[in-house]
Amino acid sequence: MTRNKTSYLRRKYEEMDEQGETWPLKQLETASRARPVVEGREVIMLASNNYLDLANDVRLREAAVDAIDRFGVGAGSDWSIAGYTELQDELHDAIAEFKGTEGGLSYQTGFSVNAGLLPQLLDDGDVYVSDEYNHGSIIDGIRLSPADSLVYEHSDMADLERVLRSARSDYNRIIVVTDGVFSMDGDVAKLDEIHRLAEEYQAMTYVDDCHGEGVLGDGHGITAEFGLEEEIDFQMGSFSKACGGFGGMLAGDQHVVDFAYNTSRTWLLSAGYPPAVAAANRCALEIIDEEPERVRDLWRKREYFQSELEDLGFDTGAGETPIVPVMIGDSKTAKEFAERLFEKGVFALSIVYPMVPRGGARIRNQINVGLTETDLDEALRVYDEVGRKLGII
């Protein structure tokens, strides 16, 4: 019998599972909405990125169907070869208008923006200065670059200045990279201070706004929140969260966009996403522009839910956005908490190592505007019951 050369992976998985650090998958049986059916059970959805409840919006569906009628199901090729349609041009113009920049570009995913563009922006002798809590796609993208990288303590502006001061004399070019909204804690980057320090130390700025579009700045993201649309050098984001669609985006000066699609291997060497996706993405940007009340309603519901959780005695950590964590600590306890919530009709995800440091496990709640006050009150009742049974409150 041939020896199983991959058996070491089984052992690694079993060790991860024993520590409560694996990710069991749950099957969604309906469209993503406020009360979907998951594994045969209707649940209150607190685990999706669908902040503005657009993933199943009839207008996005109609735009997608119209695009299928015109252009078929698949792009047929990479955008750089033969898969590019007028829908992409329309979407790119919409991105630029939405983000208040000269140019816009869509990517196959948000991850592929960071993994494909960051390796191309700097050379040997340059340096990235990155927040320690930045998304894994930023970390991977920087690792692929010939440039060096330096890390500053999370949202610590004094430490950022210390790193910039030391880097200014040692490197040719510097880019400060930060998430806009940090996806595990729900806190917001101090983008105004980051920009001020970058200007002082002649550095460029790159912000990952995947959890900011549709949420901050009346829906236009963190640069609009701080009035920095024309000041941040590289703005990237996602259509797969508040926009309810799929894919990533980049916004900046037109020469930045031109450089990006001519050098990002993720853009050049991956098939374009279906025309239906491009049409739905553009529709989502229009809806966010035309219906600012969606964003206001999202924040109202978020404030209510977090306040009520805290009144029950839960620790909501650093959350200040529709990402509302409930801090647990131990990974196994967090996973058990999430399972008990699910059994009682509330789907909220446990976040464990390596997504967060060991000892920092939490339940991540993500509010979406489709949730009613009745939904939120029922979720809070279940939280109260499970939290008391597990001794969390």
From TrEMBL:
Protein name per its UniProtKB record: Aminotransferase class I/II-fold pyridoxal phosphate-dependent enzyme
Names of required cofactors: pyridoxal 5'-phosphate
Domain Aminotransferase class I/classII large: 42-381
Keywords assigned by UniProt, alphabetized: Aminotransferase, Plasmid, Transferase
Keyword Transferase attached: yes
Keyword Transferase tagged: yes
Gene Ontology molecular-function annotations: pyridoxal phosphate binding; transaminase activity
Domain of life of the source: Archaea
